[in-house]
């Protein structure tokens, strides 16, 4: 009898739409293509691998989950020491425990789905001796080596919808709205949703903003008869003054700030400078919730089947990616090496500028 192939599935880090579609894609493609396959779903991300807490998954477990948000396996975050280790609260390495589950289940490979942090920790797991294939997921779209990630498009839809809805109340009251969108490090989501919803100002981490420039645009709009304005602001947006602070100075400033997040600081300054009534809306984790949009269902399914291909061909240590519309894979080393920030000369930023959107500079 042909040898059994054993695969472990893990969803790790912040969740997003399309994780279940990807789990389904991997599972269905493996059962379709590999005659003797056993699949083990690890509960709550790496925790399941560390504690040997898993579910033996049968074909029926991969049905009926395509449209479900979140992850049926659960997820968690672990402490990660950059480039060095994954550790518990006392600083003890968790890699030996992971290896022990891997060996106990006699796994051939782990399929790990995650964002930037997960790609980095998956590399450590691969370096430790486990076979690994990863899938890029995040609403932030900031994983290096892939043009896009599943979750991103669904979040763009939600964020766009939020701003669409705010337009009516903003215009009724003649108010300024600052809408804070997710994106700690990169502005992909804010830029896409901001343009798609007709925001007047878009503030992203990659372009430090000058509050005077933002206020100028709002005043100009008011003068020309537009009593309201919408500012789409990434949670990681930073002013040109704060950008030059040292890490320590920035930390202190944040600690002493009366505002919970950057949007509140912006709203307060805009109100002070322009005298216009200003409100803040933070959709927060709503952006990661609910069913994946059709684009993400398709992408996650494509990524899932590509992961199965890599396993069939024993091509480990790779991340599935999409480049120029083609599904491909790249070495995990490369994917984990850096963050995909939004280039400040990106053509879509130029599009925003071309239609008069203020990018804060
Ligand atoms: O998934 C990435 C992200 O959406 C970031 O944009 C955001 O800062 C972060 O997740 C918050 O996630 P959590 O609250 O789960 O730590």
Explain what this protein looks like in three dimensions.
With 361 residues, this protein is an alpha/beta fold. The protein folds into two domains: 5-150 and 292-335, Rossmann fold; 155-288, 3-Layer(aba) Sandwich (Rossmann fold). It has 13 helices and 13 strands. A seven-stranded mixed β-sheet has the order 3-2-1-6-7-12-13, sandwiched between helices. It has a four-stranded parallel β-sheet with strand order 9-10-8-11, sandwiched between helices. Helix 4 links the parallel strand 6 (109-114) and strand 7. Helix 1 (19-33) packs parallel to helix 11 and helix 7 (211-223) crosses helix 10. The longest helix is centred in the middle third of the chain and has 22 residues, at 152-173. The structure holds 6-O-phosphono-beta-D-fructofuranose. 6-O-phosphono-beta-D-fructofuranose binds at residues 14, 115, 138-140, 182-184, 235, 288.
Ligands and ions found: 6-O-phosphono-beta-D-fructofuranose
Number of strands: 13
CATH architecture grouping of the largest domain: 3-Layer(aba) Sandwich
Broad CATH class of the largest domain: Alpha Beta
Task: Describe the structure concisely for a colleague.
The chain has two domains: 5-150 and 292-335, Rossmann fold (3-Layer(aba) Sandwich); 155-288, Rossmann fold (3-Layer(aba) Sandwich), CATH 3.40.50.
For this entry, give a set of tags.
single chain; 361 residues; alpha/beta; Rossmann fold; 2 domains; 7-stranded mixed beta sheet; 4-stranded parallel beta sheet; 13 strands; elongated; binds 6-O-phosphono-beta-D-fructofuranose
